[in-house]
Specification:
By secondary structure, this protein is an alpha+beta fold. It has one domain: Nucleoside Triphosphate Pyrophosphohydrolase (Alpha-Beta Complex), CATH 3.90.79. It contains five helices and eleven strands.
Length: about 220
Amino acid sequence: MSGRTPAILESCTETRARLARLAERTSTRLPQASIPDHFRRAAVLLLVGCHGNQPCLVLTERAAGMRSHASEISLPGGRIESGETPEEAAVREAAEEVGVDPVAVARLGRLDEAWSKARNHVVPVVGWYDQPLHALAATSPEVAQVFVTPLARIARPEAHRVDIAEIEGRTYENDVLDADTFEIYGLTADIVLDLLAWLAETERGRVPQRLRELERSLEAR
C-alpha cells in the first residue's frame, strides 16, 4: 500500500458500507483455459467485523503438520465441494476452522481470483461478521490459532514490503504485511492487499501478473 492509511478504517460503519459496495463490482476471473486441469477450485473468506470499535480481519495460523502451507498465516477456506458456490464453501470452511456462525456472515462480494502453490484456483469471498470476533477460536486440527487483526494496522504504508526470492534460477516477488506480532506472506498478503485497495477506493489489477506468475511456475516444473 502507498500513501496514508485510509480514514475509513477508523469506522466499522464506514468500512462495512464500503465493503457492501463490492456487490456492484465484477470480480476479475482467471481464464479457465489458463488453469491446469489438476488445479482444485477453492474459496477463502476475508471475514471482517467490529472488534474494539475498529474493523478487524480474521486470519489463522495453519497447523505445523499440514502438507501444504504449514504454519503459514492464512484466510479461512478450502476446497469448493460439488454443488457449492464459492460463497457457500468459504463460509462452511470458516465454520469448520474457526467456529463462525454461518447465519451471522453477511456475504458482501468477491475480490479478484488467484491461485496458490498448492495447486488451487482461489476465489476470495468477502463477508461481514455480526457476532463478536473474540469468540472465534481454532475448531479444526488444521488450525493452530486465530488472529483478529485491525485493518488499520496492516494498511499502514510501512507495514507492506516486497521480498525477492530466487528459486531454481527464477526470481519471484512476494508481498509481506507486518501485523506486528506476525507477518502475512505470499498469496494471503496479495489477497489482503486487494481488500485494502478496495477500502482505499483504488484497484490493484493483479490478475494479469498472477497469470504471468502461473505460467512461469508451470514452466519451472
